Every structure is written in structure tokens, then in C-alpha cells.
Amino acid sequence: MELALPLWFEIAAFVGLTAILITDLVIVYRRPHIPSTKESSLWVGFYVFLALAFAALMFFIAGPEHAGQFVAGWLTEYSLSVDNLFVFLLIMAQFSVPRKYQQEVLMVGIILALVFRGAFILLGAQLIESFSWIFYLFGAFLIYTAIKQAFSHDDDVEQRESGLIRLLRRRVHITDHYDGAKIRTMVDGKKAFTPILVVFIAIGTTDLLFAIDSIPAIFGITQDPFIVFTANVFALMGLRQLYFLLGDLVDKLEYLKYGIAFILGFIGVKLVAHALHTNELPFINGGHHIEWAPEIGTTTSLGVIVAAMTVAVVASLIKLRRDGRKVEVDAADDTSSVTVESRD
């Protein structure tokens, strides 16, 4: 029997998550540094443990359906957050952000992501409550996003950010050099903005775009605003440490975007099927529901999400390993050729 989540649990969750985020923010502000692999691993493991512990609490308090929805939503948002990391890597590289200050930039990005996603969650919940047919739009949008994700190129992001830079430099006096993590500095006795301003705007724009993609995706798994919001928060927690843990590996997971595209497409189809099953269509069957439309349960969704990400990551790692071996063989062949030529 499924129970409603009690109010005390929701309040305690919000208070606890806020305390953790503030603590993380204070640590970054007081001690900007490049975290080691061990430190990053411990933090990522800690946040994953918190998410699973939270799911376990939901299981005992409200039943397996709520817990399953949270885990499926968390994994979906986590996969999209990893994809977001790739764009962050491009932005950091393009603006040559000193690695020491990348933690602060990432923390600002996470806060902006929470604000944007919170706003879209409230808007999405209101739209669903007022207009149940919005599932058709959400589903179509996710299918379109899945196709765009599968066939997108890295150059698209770089060109968009380059256009943003050109626009800002025409409008605002921006220096060519960083002054720590300061947004403004003094140049020849005059105040000017540092490139960190452009980085923050670029990160914020990216967060906004990903919020537009991610919120319809998780509403395809659950319509409970509390689960939607907490799944997003847990997906973003530890993202900063994951950035330093994975580093350039995110860029090398070649098939990751296809796994994410498959997940988005699957949830899009699920939303359309749900809408067909629950909404009356006046122009079909005399205004009746489409009874044959399948209802995809939480367990099925969770299995598909886990399988898609596992296949994408494993396939990427296999290809990465094969490419590394090929490089070693080619290097060995080149060395042998040089040795033979020198003997001749």
C-alpha cells in the first residue's frame, strides 16, 4: 500500500539539503583549491550514498512506488548532469579558467541550476494540474531533444559561446586576464570586468538550457513536485567533485550522448502513451480514452534508464581502451620503421 509523504519528512528534507548545500558553498569559498582524486571520490561517494539513503527512507515511509520514482528521477537527472559537465569542460577550456578557481565557478553554476530548475518545476507542476494535455507537448519536446542530442556536434556549443563573447565584448569593458575569482578589477585606475563574468553568464545560459530539457524528462517519471525537486538537488550535489574526478574522461565517453538521447526518447514516448491513456481525444473514437496505449511503470522506467546508461558507458570505455591500444601499436610500428631506416 502506497502512503503519502508526510509533511514533516518533506520539511526535514528541505532543511537538511539546504544545510548541506550551504556547507559545501562555505567550504569552496574559504578554501579554493584543486581537489585530489581521493577527495573527489570520497565526496562523490558520499553524495551517492545520501541519495540512496534518502530513497531507502522514502521506501519505509511511503512505499516502493515513491522510492522507485525518486531513484529513476535521480538517475535520469544525474545522467543529464554528467552531460552538462561536458559543456562545462568546453566553457572552462574556452575561457582558460585557472583550475584553482574552477570550483567557485562550478558552485555558481550549481546554484543557478537549482534556481532555474526550481522555477521550471513550479511552472511544470502548475501546467500539469491545469492542462493535462501538456503531456503531449512534453513528450514531443523530449523526442525532439533526443534526436537533437544524438546528432549534435561539439562545434554547436563552441559557436554559440563565441557569439556570446563577441556580444559582451562589444557592450562591456572586459579585461583579457583574470584577477583571482573577482568579477571586477582595476585596470589603469579604472574599473573593468574580468572574464569570470563571461564565464558565469555562459554557465548560467547552459544551466537554463539544461533545465528546459531536464524538467519535462523527470515529469515523465513522476508528477510529485517534491520528488522532482529532491531528485534534481541530489543529482546536482557532488557535481562539482565529479567534474574533477572525471576530468577529461567525460569528453572521451563517446557513446554517452547516445545513452542520454535514448533515455530522453524513451521518456518522451512514455509521456505520449500516458497522455493517450488518460486524456480524451474528441477526434478519436468519439472522445474516448485510447485504452490500448501502454502504461509504462516505474520499475520498467528504472530498468531502461540503468540499462541505457550502463551500455553507453561500457561501450565508451571499450572503445577508449581499443583506441589506446591502437595508438600504442601505431607508435611501436613508427619506432620500428625509424630503427630500420637508421640501420640502412
Q: Please, could you describe this protein's structure?
A:
The chain has 344 residues and is mainly alpha-helical. 76% of the residues lie in helices and 2% in strands. Strands 1-2 form a two-stranded antiparallel sheet. A hairpin with a 2-residue loop joins strand 1 and strand 2. Helix 4 runs parallel beside helix 7. The longest helix has 46 residues, at 298-343. The protein starts with 6 loop residues before the first helix and ends with a helix.
What are the defining features of this structure?
single chain; 344 residues; mainly alpha; two-stranded antiparallel ribbon; 2 strands; 76% helix; globular
Helices, by number, come to: 12
Structural class: mainly alpha
What is the beta-strand fraction? under 5%
Q: Characterize the biggest β-sheet.
A: 2 strands, antiparallel
The tally of beta strands, per DSSP, is 2
Number of domains: 1
User: Whole-number average pLDDT?
Assistant: 77
Tell me the series of helices and strands, N- to C-terminal: HHHHHHEEHHHHHH
Global shape: globular
Contiguous runs where pLDDT drops below 50 for at least 5 residues? 282-287
Radius of gyration: 23 Å
Q: Cα distance, first to last residue?
A: 83 Å
What topology, given as strand order, has the largest sheet?
1-2
| Proportion of helical residues | over 70%
Write the layout of secondary structure elements.
Layout: H1 7-30, H2 37-62, H3 64-94, H4 102-130, H5 134-150, H6 154-171, E1 184-187, E2 190-193, H7 195-219, H8 225-236, H9 239-246, H10 249-252, H11 256-278, H12 298-343
Antiparallel strand pairs: 1-2
